[in-house]
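User: Assemble these into one structure.

Assistant: Restating your components, then the assembled model:
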Amino acid sequence: MNEPSTYEPMLIVMKPSATAREVGAVVEIIEAIGFRAHPMPGATRTAIGITGNKGPIDGRRFENLPGVAEVIRVTKPYKLVTRDLRPDKTIVRAGDAAIGGEELAIIAGPCAIENRDQALAVARIVQQSGARFFRGCVWKARTSPYTFQGLGDEGWEILTEIREAFGLKIVTEALDEAGVDLVEQHGDVIQIGARNMQNYSLLKCAGRSRLPVLLKRGMAATLEEWLLAAEYIMAEGNYNVVLCERGVRTFAQHTRNTLDLASVPAVRRLSHLPVLVDPSHGTGAAYMVTPMARASVAVGADGLMIEVHNQPDRALSDGAQALTPEQYLSLVAEAHAIRGVARSIINQSPSATPSPGLVTAA
Amino acid sequence: MNEPSTYEPMLIVMKPSATAREVGAVVEIIEAIGFRAHPMPGATRTAIGITGNKGPIDGRRFENLPGVAEVIRVTKPYKLVTRDLRPDKTIVRAGDAAIGGEELAIIAGPCAIENRDQALAVARIVQQSGARFFRGCVWKARTSPYTFQGLGDEGWEILTEIREAFGLKIVTEALDEAGVDLVEQHGDVIQIGARNMQNYSLLKCAGRSRLPVLLKRGMAATLEEWLLAAEYIMAEGNYNVVLCERGVRTFAQHTRNTLDLASVPAVRRLSHLPVLVDPSHGTGAAYMVTPMARASVAVGADGLMIEVHNQPDRALSDGAQALTPEQYLSLVAEAHAIRGVARSIINQSPSATPSPGLVTAA
Amino acid sequence: MNEPSTYEPMLIVMKPSATAREVGAVVEIIEAIGFRAHPMPGATRTAIGITGNKGPIDGRRFENLPGVAEVIRVTKPYKLVTRDLRPDKTIVRAGDAAIGGEELAIIAGPCAIENRDQALAVARIVQQSGARFFRGCVWKARTSPYTFQGLGDEGWEILTEIREAFGLKIVTEALDEAGVDLVEQHGDVIQIGARNMQNYSLLKCAGRSRLPVLLKRGMAATLEEWLLAAEYIMAEGNYNVVLCERGVRTFAQHTRNTLDLASVPAVRRLSHLPVLVDPSHGTGAAYMVTPMARASVAVGADGLMIEVHNQPDRALSDGAQALTPEQYLSLVAEAHAIRGVARSIINQSPSATPSPGLVTAA
Amino acid sequence: MNEPSTYEPMLIVMKPSATAREVGAVVEIIEAIGFRAHPMPGATRTAIGITGNKGPIDGRRFENLPGVAEVIRVTKPYKLVTRDLRPDKTIVRAGDAAIGGEELAIIAGPCAIENRDQALAVARIVQQSGARFFRGCVWKARTSPYTFQGLGDEGWEILTEIREAFGLKIVTEALDEAGVDLVEQHGDVIQIGARNMQNYSLLKCAGRSRLPVLLKRGMAATLEEWLLAAEYIMAEGNYNVVLCERGVRTFAQHTRNTLDLASVPAVRRLSHLPVLVDPSHGTGAAYMVTPMARASVAVGADGLMIEVHNQPDRALSDGAQALTPEQYLSLVAEAHAIRGVARSIINQSPSATPSPGLVTAA
């Protein structure tokens, strides 16, 4: 693969008081380490552009040199995730189901697999809604060590039964290397949770798997860090990565997280990877899930991840954000209706450039 | 008006090590200042509920008493903004135009009035789109004192001309008391900007006006603070307040602000006031405005505030986020299409409880 | 005054796919508007430096041009606040008292003037501590319209009495133009509160005053915005500005605000203005005020702003963060001790370059 | 160990419009699941306290019941980290070196072990400063997969040599289970990085180790989440946990992270665990490290973690924040001087209650 250099250019801004000697010294260092320096004298200060670098460079190393006011790193250090490399959108496939194509992908299920009856009751609803993916954690990453941590082995058996009985693809979280192995045996999509978005050992391990990886955005992750986490997976050879926005942490208190829907067009502009939205974790409140799901589809997401429970008020985890079966089925209908109008807008004016976010796959 | 007490209950949690004497002392203080104390002994610690308070009370005053672990203020200190008081949604009217009713309200125009040609060219597009409101600042609140600050008196004449020639309602920002007077003379809706959301002198002044007030959310405002700012205006007797979500400040760098669309269902649940979304300032990037406008309508906003410029690349302020006339007209069409499907969802299943956020006016 | 251009340089990064024609078009536009373009062809993409601009320019206007990937604004648009212009530190004087000089400045008093007895009792403690400034708000910017808003006229009389009886300089907040007039009549330092940091009408008004201005950092203000707010005041001719860090809003919940002490060395590096810290509002909890005051002095602040109350558990506002007289006197002693050791470090090794933050006035 | 129940009390606030039947239904459910309900009728609404729970309960499950306005979870779900359980401060020992005792603990070294010469040159400086701990990562958690990831096996040999030659205790990061094993073989303290603070597999693994664990605060972690991560380690039987504040992510851009020094007194109030501060990662800029280190000691931290490099401008990672040897030695001197004055304050007035944060070990 012909990798474009993504590490140039860079800009060093000298102080107004910087002497010619200091400017010269910076130029010298730049060239000594194999780059090209472009001094730009201005009315009151000089800036020095850097190009031609073939490898990674940490621009902050110049920050402490005499006369330097600021160092501006310009381009983003990712390669495989970018549309520069691959203009067509990626469609990630799990058997006969796909994420990133024409069809809106819906992943639904309970937060955690609690027991066989609960899981099968929910799976039946998910199948009935037309969704192709079933979510459900066999273990749960819980903030406290004393809360319900998941069902373990019995959970895997239940997931296997659901997969066979309902034809749903299983999306479930791996917390470590052993977890990746288990998902490979029993599931269809490896989920990397928000808390593990920068667990590089786990990312590399998922990168060596043959299964698609659903990568949730970390709760304090910039767009760049999120894409670089995807890059970690892809750098190991697994190109089937699906991004999932699930809200970021802010000062706001009316939601558990602040769902950053602008990340959908932002990802679309930079990357060929499909992107989903999880309005359940992204809000933490059942009454907001459906409106935010509509918004997610309207903004151009490739799909939704939704928590549904047959008895939300008895859920062992995250009950406050789980929808009832009725609410969930209504959400799916609304989501498809919004998706339809979004697509018809494009088709009605084929000559016009469609606004960003509505185009999914070529 | 029969005002519900909104200051109760409150809860004081004692430390596990608190003595009976310490519990007694807290109870005594609560009763001494006119409230009722409800001690609740638990397995390992005691909590004390407080009810019956008729006036405001700052619970943090109990925090430093011996034996107290934590003080929990429970309810929100607003009254006039709440649906508790007024279950029906408020429709705010400016002449024959309305915000909060059946019709999606669209407020559009340039960031700043730059000159007569620009303003009239944009107004023509806005009228053509079917929007009823024209926005345009005569002066601009700019972060730097050295950037374009607006046109001043000439701007008011231009706005007056637009109002008469195109029948558009004028929405423009007031920065101080003198500004409120000018909007009263020349405009239809007083805008309070995000930077002034907690400028209480200005809020009170707008509360004494007869014009509707569009109150933008401050960039670090919680939902409670935003509603309390509206309460300031309403407490002066002006009940025609429209809220406008315009993004909050977070660590994210792919947008100028993080547009918090979950604030729309959150406002709807608590308040009868209409709520708009400004995806232009809320993202700061033209390519995101249309997708986020679709999402805003889908989530249930009562309207949109959009920046459009006849020549965005020559705009004197905020050019990067202004749409071209073509982009703007396409946005309006898409917004109406989304609004339509959202409403038809409800009408198709009249028996079902509609999901929150789609119901606008009764 | 010979103002340095602070608007250059700027950098435009072209996409790897940008054509020579697109690069040429950008260069042409840059030169057409009077700047100098410096194209820098790189291995895979071209960047274009901009210098020579004499006036303000909003770089984001280039963002939508064909072939442009990103626009990097490099330098900060402030002038009067910078050390580039005035390397020596500013000492702000109020009569015979100073902020920014050798002596640690201490501003102390209650949050609000509640009544004569309270105010005089606290003033006595403040005088006893050796502090030169008394704080106390005659009106209070309160989040809710229903909480105690201050004492009004009677408050001004009390402040005047304190000023005469104790020789303390009065620091009190102005909320609007009328407030600035009142502080000019009765006080010594105009405080601009965090909520009004971007109330430009008020900033300009304070800029026309002859009194020093204490400018609190807004709760979501970047360093640049804070300095630009100071620039607004200074651009009107009032150079006696004191900055005051009081914490920013973050997700953290163990404090009311997150006190950002790194802003002290950051301000020092860029600006000649003195900077204080307010650990009372910056934490919101009495038990943290003294440790954070010590830290503030150790990091190099020019002074402290402290809330003290004769009876914190009966305070009408912010009682939870007010210190008792004993706690306050102990804080002052600790602050002076830390200040002493910080200075002695420097004096013991006069040849060594002192670490940033410890040097106060030349 | 007799564990206090930390899950009570809880408070359910009913809406003003809630009927007696709805209140009754909530009380019934509370009692049906084994808790005690305390209804508190108020002037306008009823609240219901819950006590007596023996196990964990997710209060949010009540949020969707008819008539419920809000559910307030009151107490924090940690047990082993709290001072309730263990009032005396923990002193964590690594051989003859200690963290949390009388002496200020200093952990210093390069960000990453780059080669033998660099590592030994730095170790010599660290030893010379009197510090007892050497930090240095054998592998690095880097945001990008294409930047320097560390030295691997050769790094372990270098660390072993430093440990023997200089008598320094080795603090180094483990990224996964295999990493924990390697630190157990070659090091003295297992560091868990900020990105892995909620990597529960790793926390449990460290909890099964016999080595002390230095747990960095996650960049978006609340105080509660950070303490619960420590609880995860302790719940596995390893009580030797040291907390390390390293800054949180905010909107501020003058530092890489916002160092939240108020977390030091906040931890001290709740927990018996020692707490360090890392001003190098916490600011990301060399010129701020020394002032923020002084502040960290002044606020009452038990120690510092500092990056020092023999040639910061050639460092392969994080060079911008590394101190030169001279700067580092000066920092250590200043830190000890501040520590001294902080302690002498206490000793001079033994009768007075010392202000929080200065008392370290009994």
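Confidence is low (pLDDT under 50) at residues 1-7, 349-362 of chain B.
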